Amino acid sequence: MNAGATLHYDPRLVEEAVFHAQRLGSVSQELQESRNRLYEVSDTDAQEDLFNDLNRSWFVRLHLGKTIEGALQEQPIITEQVEQCFVVRATHRKQEGAELFVARESAQNNPQRRTLRVLLCPESLFDAEALTLFLRHELFHIADMLDPRFGYEPVLPNTDGGPTYDTLIVNRYGVLWDTTINGRMMQRGWLTDSVRDQQLRDFCRAFPMLGQTGEECFRIFFHADQPNHAKLTRFAFDPRAAAGRLEGQSAVGTHCPLCKFPSHSFEPEPESFADEVLTAIIQDFPQWTPAQGLCTQCADLYRASRLSRAAARALPGWISDSSKV
Asked: What is the SS3 assignment for 295?
């Protein structure tokens, strides 16, 4: 960390990590004997402090923070810009990760105070290889957030497709960002080819509308030396436009211009609709053209509406809208 930075370890994490080491047989009888002596201390507060000191000393002695500290040193932008780092206990694996907090202050000489929080399960400290890989990936996210060249913004713009489509865009953005991170980790020799292959599969699942050009687009992001938040956002919102591939109708995975929901099934020939169907759609969506396409659900809805009107005409006494008074 930088000259004024402090690395804090959660006492609960330290205690459980040392206990885990003892359970694995990594600690000698010396630790248990030291603990037994502390139970003889009558002052409860003093006893708790002594236990914390004992756990901290063994945490350092067993080098249980070595992997964390090494991963932090690999990202100079973090060690330069983060004021404090708290390594705290996660209650389960899914909670593990790294978070950056920025406190804005009025003082001109220190407009922002940055704090990093790393959440880890105690048992994760005992698999150095897996922990190193995990921390490198997580800390690359933090490094990008701190890098002005990346231009990170904490919130993506809202879409006109509602919360469901907003979630889709966030997920796409996450896949893109992970792709750029894994690519840079590969360049540093930190990943194997199998990770690249898995990332490619994730990319293609997130962007099925790219079809056979998906791998080509993947390589652009995977081999990017300096990714940019704005470019990732543009691609997440409109992959085909960002990739310069807007030809043809709506593609698999894009959203329907009428209902705004993402779809994997689009009407193959909307230009072949009967005039009555086209007129009904344009009445509801004046800016729509057949070239924009629409999902099969919306197409079926408008076709069904046309059939319903045709059936109504066959009924005795049917009166058209134009003849109603």
From this structure: strand
Report yes or no on whether pTM surpasses 0.90: no
- Euclidean distance between CA atoms 71 and 61, whole angstroms: 19
Nearest C-alpha neighbor of 112 from the set 83, 132, 139, 137: 83
**Residue 290 backbone phi and psi in degrees, to 5:** -55, -30
Residue located via tokens 């790294």: 98
Within the chain, which residues score under 70 in pLDDT? 1-5, 26, 104-112, 161, 243-254, 262, 264, 306-325
User: What is the CA 303 to chain-centroid distance, rounded?
Assistant: 40
Burial 90-104 (b: 16+ CB within 10 A, else e): beeeeebebebeeee
pLDDT in tens, 263-319: 767 888 888 888 888 888 888 888 888 877 888 888 888 878 765 555 555 555 545
Question: How many C-beta neighbours within 10 Å does residue 231 have?
Answer: 17
Helix (DSSP H) and strand (DSSP E) numbers for the chain: 13, 4
Alpha carbon 133 to chain centroid distance?
17
Contact 144, 227 (CB under 8 A): yes
Cα–Cα distance for residue pair 179/218, rounded to 1 Å: 8
* Whether the Cβ atoms of residue 242 and residue 251 lie closer than 8 Å to each other: no
Encoded tokens for 219 = 């390589």
What are the tokens at 217? 């687009």
Render pLDDT for 103-135 as a digit per residue (tens, 0 to 9).
866 445 555 689 999 999 999 999 999 999 999
Supply 55's token pair.
Answer: 């756990």
* Half-sphere exposure in the Cβ direction for 105 (13 Å, CA): 10
Q: Which of 269, 276, 310 is nearest to 291 (CA)?
A: 269
The two structure tokens encoding residue 251: 């593609």
Q: Which residue has the tokens 């966030």?
A: 170
d(CA 96, CA 130): 13
87 forms beta bridges with 9, 118
